[in-house]
Amino acid sequence: xxxxxxxxxxxxKNKIFRKEQILLAALLTGPLVPSYILAHNxxxxxENKKAKITWAILIIITIIPLFSIVLSIITPEIIKxxxxxxxxxxxxxxxxxxGAYYWAMHHYQDKKIKDYINAxxxxxxxxxxxxxxxxxxxxxxxxxxxxxxxxxxVSK
Length: 156
Known about the structure:
Elements: H1 3-13, E1 15-16, H2 19-29, H3 32-44, H4 48-74, H5 81-86, H6 90-118, E2 122-123, H7 126-154
Parallel strand pairs: 1-2
């Protein structure tokens, strides 16, 4: 099999996500699903190191707020990061989130997405994106209910 056939047949096995799908995911779910989409596309493009960096950044931006909440509970006299975060309007936070993921996908993947599609690759369906978003909503709801149950029912 020649290299030309390999590059044309390989994209047909895997699907990639569109920029619009990352915008929807960033709008509705925060950093989890857009990070998954970026990492997925990086893996398809053979950039495993960038996929791992994407997951590492997600872990860091998830742990820092959680750590600050725990720290503020343990040592309330320390300036709380949560108070600083609470003073930032949610719309600005949302726009920063959407803009950051859109920029990352545009900057690192735009040309590769176009080349991939031109070589015969196909996009993931919108239904898969919606399913992933729905699953994240269900998991977040269940986690919220577990915390609520513990705080209001078990701890009293």
